[in-house]
Amino acid sequence: MGFQQHQHEQQEMRKPRFMCLHGFRTSAQIMKIQIGKWPQSVLDKLDLVFVDAPFPAEGKSDVEGIFDPPYYEWFQFDKGFMEYRNFDECLAFIEDYMLKHGPFDGLMGFSQGAILSGALPGLQAKGLALMKAPKIEYLIVIAGAKLLSPIIAENAYSSPVDIPSLHFLGEVDFLKPHGLTLLDSYLDHVVIHHPKGHTVPRLDEKGLGIMNNFIDKIQRQISGKEPTPLEEEREISIA
C-alpha cells in the first residue's frame, strides 16, 4: 500500500516551471549550457524554459570566443547604470511571452536576467509590470543586483516581497555587494554562497542540499501539499 501511495504522490507532483532570463549579451542557448553544469538530479526536478531577450546585442559580448553568437540583451543602460533604454519594451516582451507560453511558477535569472528577475515581483505587486500575467510566486537569482534607476528602484524594492527566493552569491563576484542588498527586499530567501566570481556555479554538497530543499518546498506547494505564500496571505486576512 505504501509503495502505491508513494507512486501516486510522485504522479501528482508536478515540476516547478521557470522562465529563464539569460545574462547581458548572451542567449537562451548559452544559459542552457551554463545551467547544464548542475547535476541531472536537480535539472530533472525543474521545467526550465529558456528565452532569448528581445534586442540583439548592440556591442561586443564578454562571452565572444567562449560561446557562439547570436547574442541578445534585455535592455540598454548608461555608464552609471542609472538610466535605461527599452525597459518598458522589455517588460512588455516578458509579459507577452508569459501570456503566450505560460503559466510559469517563477523566474530564474543570471546577471542582467537576474537583475531583471529580482525587480519584477515588486513591480508586479505595485501594478507597474506584468499586470495581465499570473503572479510570480518563486524566484531563483544567480549573480543578481538591484536596478539603480531611482524611479524603478523606489517601485521595485520599497515594499518587501514575500515569495520564496533562492539567491546565488559568488565570493569574488563584482556584483556581490549589490546581490546582498537585494536580499533585503525578499522576506523568504535562502542563499547559496560559492567561491567563484560572476558565473553560474557548480553545486557543492551544501549548495545541492539548499537547492533540493528549495525545489522540494516549491513542489509541495504547487502540488497542494503545502500552502503557497498567496494562500497563507489569504488565510491570515480571513482570520
UniProtKB/TrEMBL annotation:
InterPro entries: AB_hydrolase_fold, FSH-like_dom. It comes from Kingdonia uniflora. It holds the Pfam family FSH1. Residues 14-205 form the Serine hydrolase domain. This is Serine hydrolase domain-containing protein. Gene3D superfamilies: alpha/beta hydrolase.
